[in-house]
Amino acid sequence: MKKDEHMASRSKQSKKGKKSSVPNQQELLKRIGAKIRAERKRLGLSLEALAKKVGISKMTLHRIETGATAPSIVNLAEISFHLKKPIESLIKEGEPKVVVIREKELNGIMDPESGIKILAPRGLISDRITITSAELDTGLVIHPHTNKGFEWAYLTKGRAVVTVGNKKYELRAGDSIFYDAHFPHSIEIKQKIHYIGLFLSDG
Q1: If you classify domain 103-201 with CATH, what class do you get?
Q2: Which of 37, 55, 110, 174 could be bridged to 117 by S-S, CB 3.0 to 4.6 A?
Q3: pLDDT at 67 over 50
Q4: Average pLDDT estimate for 45-51
């Protein structure tokens, strides 16, 4: 056999015998599930207890932990929140972090009464941050209330009056507002609005 033919033969054998270092989807799901199970046990939570906090069945959580099913981004965000771990620590495998939330999933975490849609559930960016969006109709009044954290909102259209403490702030499309939500605050919609909001909880 000629030298170049011998080298080509060895190269083919080497490629054939070499296993891919890129894990397939099933392996990734098993690794994510194992991390969830390890963190759950570290916190002393039973399968049933964590499932109840997340709002899923015990069987569903078991299937996630064993890699039998892929968790939705919403469930993964809730799991990471209750495990007090960022999502990245559960899914990181040496590759860039990319999370795509499809419209169907976003619609699944909308409050039908208020119309508020959660664009980024807590735990996705940080366990303290939630990003929301909504359209609120003219005449709607959200009465004074408080939240444990800070709020920011940007109006893309419409007009509203936001009251924080005893002071009123009129907002129009293109305006934004940031305030301490520990103080009583209310909203009155003067003209149908669309906004994007961010809530930073105390932790």
Answers
A1: mainly beta
A2: 110
A3: yes
A4: 94
CA dist., res. 63 & res. 70, Å (int)? 8
- Find the range with the poorest average confidence among 14-23, 65-74, 110-119, 144-153: 14-23
> What pLDDT score was predicted for residue 173?
97
Task: Give the separation between CA 106 and CA 128, rounded to whole angstroms.
Answer: 19
In the chain, % of residues over pLDDT 70: 83
DSSP secondary structure, the chain, as one string: --HHHHHHHHHHHHHHHPPPSS--HHHHHHHHHHHHHHHHHHTT--HHHHHHHHTS-HHHHHHHHTTSSPPPHHHHHHHHHHTT--HHHHH-SSS-------HHHHHTTB-TTT--EEEE-TTSS-TTEEEEEEEE-TT-EEEEE--SEEEEEEEEEEEEEEEETTEEEEEETT-EEEEETTS-EEEEEEEEEEEEEEEEE--
- For the chain, what are the domain ranges? 22-91, 103-201
Task: Say if residue 15's pLDDT is above 60.
Answer: no
Answer CATH for 22-91 from 1.20.1250.20, 1.10.260.40, 1.10.150.130, 3.40.50.2300: 1.10.260.40
Mean local confidence (pLDDT), 86-112: 74
